[in-house]
Amino acid sequence: MFERFTKSARDVVKGAVTEAERTGADSVTEEHLLLALLAQEGTRSSSALASLGIAGRREAVARALAEARRRGGLSKADQEALAGIGIDVTEIVSKVEATHGEGAMRSGSGPRRGLLTGRRPFTRRAKDVLEKSLRVALGRGDRYIGDEHLLLALTTQPGPVADVLTEYGATYGAVERALPSGAAPEAP
User: Fold this and answer.
1) Of 108 and 30, the one with more pLDDT
2) Which domains can be identified in the chain, with CATH numbers?
3) Which Pfam family, any one, appears in the UniProt record (predicted)?
4) What is the distance, to the nearest Å, from the Cα of residue 154 to the centroid of all Cα atoms in its chain?
């Protein structure tokens, strides 16, 4: 599959690994993919993100993602569903953190993998985004996987990353409309 990735898509994947290393994460997540996309310049996805007003808001997006991690990865929809049956997630997080320390509910913590290879593994959800990007590309009739396909795939995966993108107006349809028109690059 990676032979179909354009240089910009490969740069996003490498950037996600770098982001995971920089933050000391045990594995590469879909959050790292989004942050790597936000760091790109001069690409199809960066153009779409700029037209949606997200490109210059990388730090705000990172804070929103950190808050979602603090809630154990619960999405806004999860929070609202729980609130509907009388469960206040903010109160629960506060009580857990008072007992066990700040960030006790963060998802993604666990035994460190990849120690022997020195590489951080991709989480199942991050791998799903990569696989979905192939389906998105094929569905659009493209013979390559570009950074724009990674962005579109992130909008379709339920969870905190898609929630944060939606908060900024970056739904699948909005991103698709914001992508630059004209010929996209062919296979790398």
Assistant:
1) 30
2) 2-178 (1.10.1780.10)
3) Clp_N
4) 6
